[in-house]
């Protein structure tokens, strides 16, 4: 139970030139097809053995949702086939079909019935659903007064009330507070231990690497890579970076100034990398790890005074820390055209777990208002994970020593 | 093919019954009188028609002598027409209405029309019950012929849902179908002897209506039961029965053939 075999799977949507073309194709006997097929997914094959966990990665529009829809059976494949042994549960659209006027309990019954459970099944599961959701008295209140987190708690509890043979999880799971996130992930891990096959779609490197045995990368509707989660994730990140550069180039040639890279171009950052203490480029940093940010700068024209500034931003774009060589009293003067410099910025990554980006700026003074040679957003993206420190909250690692005295 | 559908639906009987219950409840959920409204509305209709036609206008149906005959004639026609209008009208939009559910969750799609039918039957049962009470009150209960309602309703429900599924699938691809049907329903209503007795039509028009309008023999049969207390003429029901069966088979075939394409379109 729980194996998934996907063979040469493809999905195409019919595209008609107009509504009339469809009518013509339907009613005119023996008429030639009047539609073109638009393939959103093509030639996908993979196998997941019972009890294994597979991660599915890809940028928006790569075909992940279509693949999941076909696996859960809401959409029919155009070509190829899917064989699944056992019961499939999907955590895709939590709270779908909840009726705002009815109580949480009534909605739980309805959601259960929609999953094909009988009344007796749900009666039996209800106490456990209530206990897991931990929404207390609210269970008998109408869902319309629930917060979105509470709705999601209830929906998750119903969807996972019984261990399925195959569990399909979409990144939607990241809704809810961290407490419940942890709780739900624990339940998923527990299912996994008991032999449930897992399919996870996520952009979260940590989630993919910590749970999955394998990962597949979808790109433009095809299977771009299939292998170890770490390798696939790296490939994906490289692809993303490449993608970003392309957009940057496109936008700069068309409009001359962009949000992402702007500046007059007398100097530019030609390479940037984050290195660990052995000098190896890394993308994932442990909390507190000593790292070096290596920035290579090239001057395209003679520059009187060159300052390099950088800042580390969190995923919401808030600057966590930023400084420049003017503040550090290390400006370069009278830089000739064609000169090439390598900056090495060493610091301990005293950051909380999460994703961060680096923005770089090449200017002549402290501010970038006067001579803005180059301003580069998202020059580098890295994530911080907590490998061996105590769990903590926040964006900065400010490790304390705590002394307690009874007084 | 039928066996497969039936088994899938049976497996989801909990969902179907639950949905029917919830839909009925949700209609009156935030009202003070609650389910009483489902009685008040049809009661008002019966009362209004009776007062206007039998008391105010003193309308007499040709060939009958009671003052209530016309209002019974009208009510019999309107409530059974209402059943057709509710089932086919709602099945017409059922796939569009539940597009989100259909796209996101995997369950037997045919649950949806079944829920519509059961709901319509529930509403109809309330109205019919009131109507029968009214008939008893005015001393006009038809007696044994009332049993003929069961086969009549079976034919009419099959006809309505068969038509509704055909139109419902088409409506996903061509929204014109929904618009067109609402317009057609108006014409259809007046081409059916509901307000007027079929006898007042000219001979030529009457034969066309009876031969081509499946609802005409059905409505006439209801009126035979309620107004005249007679068993329907079974021979006239052959045409509606054939059409009903044909619509159901066509509807299921169309649904099966287009189900996956329909989901892509929603």
Brief summary of the model shown:
By secondary structure, chain A is an alpha/beta fold.
How does this model look, in words?
The complex is a heterodimer of chains A (407) and B (266). By secondary structure, chain A is of the alpha/beta class. In chain A, helix 3 packs across helix 5. In chain A, the strands form 4 sheets. In chain A, strands 10, 12, 14, 15, 16, 18 and 19 form a 7-stranded mixed sheet that branches. In chain A, a hairpin with an 8-residue loop joins strand 18 and strand 19 (372-385). In chain A, 32% of the residues are buried. Chain A contains 8 helices and 19 strands. Chain A has helices spanning 19-27, 64-72, 104-114, 119-133, 148-159, 178-193, 205-211, 229-255; strands at residues 4-16, 35-48, 53-57, 79-84, 88-91, 166-169, 197-201, 214-219, 222-227, 261-262, 267-275, 284-286, 290-299, 303-314, 319-324, 332-335, 340-348, 354-363, 372-385. Chain A folds into 2 domains: 4-229, P-loop containing nucleotide triphosphate hydrolases (Rossmann fold); 263-385, abc- transporter (atp binding component) like domain (Coagulation Factor XIII, Chain A, domain 1), CATH 2.70.50.60. Chain B is built from 11 helices and no strands. The mean pLDDT of chain B is 86. Chain B has one domain (70-265). The interface between A and B is medium-sized, with 29 and 26 residues.
